[in-house]
Structures are given as C-alpha cells and as structure tokens.
Design goal:
Number of helices: 5
Helix content: 25-40%
Oligomer: single chain
C-alpha cells in the first residue's frame, strides 16, 4: 500500500441517532484531535446503542468484573448458540451493524439473560451468554466493515478500538 492510501474513520452511535456518524476522517496520517487532553477511560460515559457497552453488560452479567471482556471472549467458544438469534432480535441488530441498547432493551435482556446463581452454577449458562454476545459482536462488526467498503469503495480496511 502506498503512502496516503489508508483512510482512518471513527464512528460513534448514540441516542436516537441510529446510524453511525462519522466523527473523524483522515487520509494518510494519524493524529490526536486534542493532544493537550490526556487519554483516559474516566472520560467516557455509558453510551446507549453501543456495541462495546452491550458486550460489557454481558461481561458483568456473566459475573466478570470491569474491563474483563477478554474473559467473555475466551468463554464464548465453550457456549452453545442457543441465545444467539434471540439476542440479535432483542437488540435489533440492523443491516449495517447497529444495535439498540437502551433502558428498554436492557429490561428485555434482564428477562432473556437472568443473573445466574452464584452457588453451584456450572458455566454452561454463562458460556451461552458469552457465545451470544461474541456472535453478535462479530456479525455487527462484519456488517459495519461491509457497509464502509460499499460506501467508500475501499478494498483494504483495518479495524481497531475497544470493540474490534
């Protein structure tokens, strides 16, 4: 790939805005938009309709702690796909990888994925939750990448960030 052929695109979906909004686009270079502001996870709030927030919710539902999403990913292959389709329907996964993850959806997920008992619970239920979340994440990211390729004509893309 020649210099200046890469395009860097950041998307953010929030609130009633159901379509990913382009918040940063740059060709051939990477730079921080505000170098004076230090990067910190403390600067982020809970974001409705976020794949990352949904995956974190499932991680906590399984019983893992803050920033333990890697454990969820590791547990996913041990689960069945019993909840995969229901999870995709509940969060209304759309054709470009968007999801609905708001208070109403979280209430529906409380019923779909009740907190497993702490004592004596084998990991089958937790693994099924992890598998459903991982399947959803992978499908959503593939749909987002395909949409980006369709809209830009790009043949080479790379994914990065918290949910990729």
């Amino acid at each position: 790939m020649k210099s200046n052929e890469a395009e860097i695109v950041s998307y953010f979906v929030a609130g009633n805005d159901r379509w990913p909004r382009l918040v940063h686009r740059e060709y051939g270079a990477v730079r921080r938009l505000d170098p004076s502001r230090p990067f910190s996870w403390k600067n982020f709030d809970v974001v409705d309709d976020s794949l990352g927030e949904l995956y974190s919710w499932v991680t906590r539902r399984i019983g893992f702690g803050l920033h333990d999403e890697g454990k969820t990913m590791g547990l996913a292959p041990l689960g069945s796909d019993a909840l995969t389709e229901q999870l995709q329907e509940t969060v209304r996964l759309d054709s470009i990888g968007g999801v609905r993850f708001d208070a109403t959806t979280r209430a529906a997920l409380d019923e779909l994925m009740p907190i497993p008992p702490e004592q004596g619970e084998d990991w089958c239920v937790r693994a099924d939750y992890a598998r459903a979340a991982q399947d959803l994440l992978e499908l959503a990211l593939l749909r987002r990448a395909n949409d980006l390729c369709d809209r830009t004509g790009a043949r080479n893309i790379g994914l990065g960030g918290g949910s990729s």
